Amino acid sequence: MLPALSPERAQALVHAMAGRRILVIGDVMLDQFIVGRVSRISPEAPVPVVAFERDEYRAGGAANVALNARSLGAQVDVVGLVGADDAAWRLRELLTAADVGSSGLLTDDKRRTTTKVRIVTTRNQQVARVDYESEDAAAGSIETSTIEQMQSRVERADAVIVSDYLKGVVTRRLMAATIAACLDRSVPVFVDPKIPHVEYYAGATLITPNHHEAEAATNLRIRTNEDARRAAEAFRDRARAAGVLITMGEDGMWLSADDEGHLPAAAREVADVTGAGDTVVAALALAVAAGATAAEAARLANLAAGIVVGKFGPAVVTPGDLARAAVR
Predict the structure, then answer these.
(1) Does some domain include residue 1?
(2) pLDDT the model gives residue 316
(3) Domain contains 120
């Protein structure tokens, strides 16, 4: 059973998050929302006709992780790859506006900036999504330059987050160099994983698969807390990581680290689960950087996830949001 987290301890940790230095490495994205009204079905095909009203742009993927950490009070730098395109310009603007360091974003003119275009109604109902992306793994001079960007920033970091979306940034070589650099400096490493890369993450402090990813990695079905416990232990063994936090949506989370146990879901109303994993890994890393145990960090991350799924699209949590949730 996980130890309880008192409101006083939660408040102290939230306060201690301010100014901690977080380095985010991974697949940055731009989320575009084309918002409009639907009043009829197309005569050309059985699909709704969306009357355009506005465009909205938000940072996604590793960039959303960075915004979540920044919103919680951290100083944040991002290392990743973008293309030589308008989407990269928009993404840099979003990061700059949030006071997130983006000088570690390298331009690779052979790829395009990962962009997810969602067509949604004014009632926040998604009609369709179009993805623009390059999935080729970074190699050669681009991979070397990405590693150099990481190495030049890790000495200033209190924690490192690797946000892997299988878009080419997180390679075996980059991951090995990141783990080695962090071990040399006793910097904890948190990974939001993808299963094809699970062997890359050996030596990580804590990995945060969702229950589908945990099932795929372990060939174990998760239906009960005992299932989650066995899957988390099997995942830890396969990944050779110090800890695992399985996120299970409405069924909460299961932590397997120095302490282990189940956390019931904190969400009251769910509007959109987009980016919830980004929020979890950002809150975990920042809480540990602020002095939390893995169990305390998991409890705060659970509260943060409960807040963010009540918002539409990739969203962030503030220290005030988290502090209020801790005393409810």
Answers:
(1) no
(2) 74
(3) no
Domain of 180?
A: 7-29+60-113+134-326
Active site residue 278: yes
Pairing of strands 75-82, 21-26: parallel
pLDDT, mean of residues 113-137: 93
Active-site position among 31, 164, 278, 321: 278
Closest Cα partner for 119 from 42, 49, 34?
34
Q: How far is CA 248 from CA 68, 227, 241, in A?
A: 20, 12, 19
Q: Which amino acid is at 284?
A: L
Partner residues linked to 191 by β-bridges: 162, 207
**What are the Cα distances from residue 268, in Å, to 98, 176, 253, 281, 325?**
28, 39, 15, 20, 11
Task: Give the HSE-up count for residue 35: Cα atoms under 13 Å, Cβ half-sphere.
Answer: 13
Average pLDDT over every residue of 182-194:
97
pTM higher than 0.85: yes
Across residues 224-243, what is the average pLDDT? 96
Q: What is the dihedral of CA 104, 241, 243, 297, to 10 degrees?
A: -10
Question: What pLDDT score was predicted for residue 267?
Answer: 58
C-alpha 183/C-alpha 205 separation (Å) is 10
Tokens of 112: 């395009």
CATH number of the domain where residue 194 is located? 3.40.1190.20
pLDDT score for 306: 85
- Determine the Cα–Cα distance for residues 54 and 67; give it in Å rounded to an integer: 23
* Domains held by the chain: number: 1
Q: How many helices (H) and strands (E) does the chain have?
A: 10, 13
- The predicted structure's pLDDT at residue 189: 98
